[in-house]
Amino acid sequence: MIEPMQDSSTRFVFVDADVRGNIVRLGDSFKQMTAPHDYPHEVQELLGEFLAAALLLSDTIKFEGRLTLQANGQGNIRLLMAEATHEGAVRGIAQLEEAAPANAFMDKNLLQLLSGGTLTVTVEARGRERYQSIVPLLGETLAECLESYFQQSEQLNTFIRLSADSTQATGMLIQQLPVQMEQDLAQRADRWQTIRVLAGTITGPELMADANSVLLQHLFVDENIQMFGETSVRFQCSCSEQRMAGALVSLGELELASLFEERQTLALTCEFCGAHYNIDNKKLTQLVTEGVKPH
Ligand SMILES: [Zn+2]
To answer: What are the DSSP E strand ranges found in 149-230?
Structure first.
């Protein structure tokens, strides 16, 4: 048996169809980023799905920079955030309702956990304006919401499967491309339907257990699939003094002034990686002069 290659992103194409795909896998990167947090396992799994999805999206929406998939909710989960850069650096975090009992997360789907929430994708691309789009919560799972997002915003038929446990997270995206070689539209539609149905037969545990080549061969026996080389994925926090200063500035002048009234130096800890920063008023002024970045 060939073990799947963890912490990787692998693209593939269907050689005779206008269809592309990608499989992403997080192992050590996922463990490193979740180790300092004591998330309930349902939350950890959902965060894993968010991370896999952010990686898949960053590969699909071609750009150089950072993509953030973020859910804000009023339910037991207040914030779920996953970021991926085009270079495969990922980080993510979950914030929970403080009073939530340990069993609050059991048997609840995404919509219930995020009750009344919003889901957004933000792209910060080099040399371009930061842009944000809203993903309507039209589905019970993150994968379903993202599939309908692609359908509505890009008019691209898309299949997404996400799966995670406490130590790994995996995602597969298969997407129909604009017409290139498939000129017969009826045949093209049939072909997509077949691929989608076959893709839909894979279970989460199968997606996590099988190596990419084995998995694709089993799923699409009659298809000629070309896989490209894996690119590596790693946990890397993008925090910096500049970003911490950005978070402080976003509090507003009044709030900042009252913080500095209480103490000379603010001791800040990055929620993503646990790094510590000490910023006093002089330092903050210097950072603001140099130009701060959003956290
Ligand atoms: Zn950090």
So the answer is: 158-164, 169-176, 225-227
Measure 93 CA to ligand 1 centroid, in angstroms. 11
Give me the residues near ligand 1 (ion), CB cutoff below 5 Å.
Answer: 237, 239, 270, 272-273, 275
CATH number of 241-290: 3.90.1280.10
Q: What is the DSSP letter of 238?
A: -
Per-residue model confidence as pLDDT tens digits over 191-224: 999 999 999 999 999 999 999 999 999 999 999 9
What residue ranges do the domains of the chain occupy? Answer: 8-235, 241-290
Sign of CA dihedral 60, 62, 68, 74: negative
CATH architecture of 8-235: 3-Layer(bab) Sandwich (3.55)
- Confidence (pLDDT) at 66: 93
The amino acid at residue 63 is F
Note if the pTM is more than 0.70: yes
Q: Identical fold at 8-235 and 241-290?
A: no
Q: What's the pLDDT tens digit per position in 164-184?
A: 999 999 999 999 999 999 999
